[in-house]
Specification:
The protein has 122 residues and is α/β, with parallel strands linked by helices. The chain has one domain: Glutaredoxin, CATH 3.40.30.10. The chain contains 5 helices and 5 strands, in the order βαβαβαββαα. The chain has a 5-stranded mixed β-sheet. It is globular.
Length: 122
């Protein structure tokens, strides 16, 4: 599976309708973004069970602002609609693989319990 272009119209539904979604926030003028793009593409081909979305921060400035993007590239990873990873910086292929493996291995019941406890102030 290749990457999918995400827009303000498709971002929320893509995250809610899929188990695991990786989102690369990027821009054409960004050197590190251009370096990360082929790494992201290869991972998309290797993991057809995962959705790999790309948000062009130039075309989707409002979406990038709503997502709190202050540096690009930024990778966000969602599992079952929950944001489980959010870091700026271009990743090498082995680091991206580690993140994907870790996210696939998450026990989402535990993650939700942790979120509930954090939101309850405990």
């Amino acid at each position: 599976m290749s990457t999918t272009t995400l827009t303000a119209d498709t971002f929320t539904s893509t995250i809610s309708d899929n188990d695991i979604v990786l989102v690369d926030f990027w821009a054409g003028w960004c050197g590190p973004c251009r370096m990360f793009a082929p790494v992201f593409e290869k991972a998309a081909e290797k993991h057809p069970d995962v959705v790999f979305g790309k948000v062009d921060t130039e075309a989707e400035g409002r979406l990038a602002a709503q997502a709190g993007i202050t540096s690009i590239p930024t990778l966000m990873v969602f599992r079952e609609g929950v944001l489980v990873y959010n870091e700026p910086g271009a990743l090498p292929a082995p680091a991206l693989e580690q993140i994907i493996t870790a996210v696939k291995g998450l026990d989402m019941d535990v993650v939700r319990q942790q979120l509930d406890a954090a939101n309850a102030g405990g």
